[in-house]
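Entry 12.
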Amino acid sequence: MLRQARLNVLTRPSRPSAEEANHASRGHPRRARRQRVRQVTGRTDFHSRLHRDEATVRISARGAARLTGAAARALAATGTPEPDGWTRATLPVESPDHAHAMLLGLGAEAEVLAPDLRARIAVTVRTLAERYV
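Predicted 3D structure (tokens):
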């Protein structure tokens, strides 16, 4: 009997089983996970750290329709319409790499005005043009 108890102690997993986690979260399997994420990151702290940079752009109506999340909200809140139908705005971005990928994804529907990011996108566009033309 003592031998069996030792075996159970040695083989018991360090994490709770799915059943124990469900019981702990009162039958809601995602509740425990959400609570743990809040403990680790802190909800407000997470959002304040998410968009640390900004990108100043001109964007067409088609490009604006493709924006989502914080970028779409920033465009709606602070965008300035221009006579040619495009909108000038400062969009929140996670990093220069994120802005580069996001704005290249909009193709010709966006024009980057921020000098550093504009130069980086110009290099990428030249490389693409050499590759495909």
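Annotation: The chain has a mean pLDDT of 80. The first helix runs from residue 2 to 11.
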